[in-house]
Design brief:
12 strands, single chain, globular, alpha/beta, 6 helices, 3-stranded mixed beta sheet, 7-stranded mixed beta sheet, 201 residues
Length: 201
């Protein structure tokens, strides 16, 4: 089986760390800044950063509608922190001009775990990730307030939902790309492999 090509939306945020984690999880990792680059990948990571800035830049770069179309068509996508917010159908406290890509039937709360100086790390057991709990890095992290019937809750912390999956869309409130533990990225790479048609292999 050929190696899947997975993009990282490279408009703002911790792009480099995701590229390294994906490569460590046996994917070909590429930055994506233009619609034609998006068209060439089998899956996409939406990194942490500032969700309002990323959404505005996606519109500016002509990427928002192609992103929505690919996600609706079933392209595997994984969002961390700000990326989780971008995958939500609704934000409880959106900033002016903030848009989402959608893809997961969930309502999210921005900066729910506190400001930058309240960032923390915690062990999080993630369904589908074998072995010990994942070390979750929470930086101005959102949480998932509620989910629809088709959304699978993969992890909770302190009574709040912090990892979800709906079909080919995966999202975490925390940053596994910052820890050197690539098991969540490996889960996503497996999702991308499973989604590829025989014709593309």
């Amino acid at each position: 089986m050929s190696t899947p090509v997975i993009g990282v939306l490279a408009l703002q945020g911790d792009v480099r760390e995701h590229l390294i984690a994906l490569a460590a999880a046996d994917a070909v990792a590429r930055p994506v800044r233009r619609p034609e680059e998006l068209a060439e990948v089998d899956g996409l990571v939406l990194p942490g950063g500032e969700s309002t800035t990323i959404s505005k830049l996606a519109v500016l770069f002509g990427l928002m509608e192609p992103l929505r179309a690919r996600v609706r068509a079933g392209m595997p996508v994984y969002g961390t922190c700000a990326g989780l917010i971008l995958l939500a159908e609704k934000i409880l406290d959106p900033r002016s001009g903030q848009e989402t890509i959608g893809g997961i039937d969930m309502i999210v709360r921005r900066n729910a775990f506190g400001r930058q100086n309240e960032s923390f790390e915690a062990a999080v057991g993630v369904q589908g990730v074998p072995g010990d709990p994942v070390e979750g890095v929470f930086i101005r992290a959102p949480w998932v307030e509620s989910v629809g019937a088709d959304v699978q809750v993969l992890a909770e912390h302190d009574g709040h939902i912090v990892a979800v999956r709906q079909g080919n869309a995966l999202a975490t409130s925390f940053h596994p790309e910052l820890t050197g533990d690539h098991r969540v990225h490996a889960l996503f790479v497996d999702m991308v492999r499973a989604n590829r048609t025989p014709e593309s292999l």
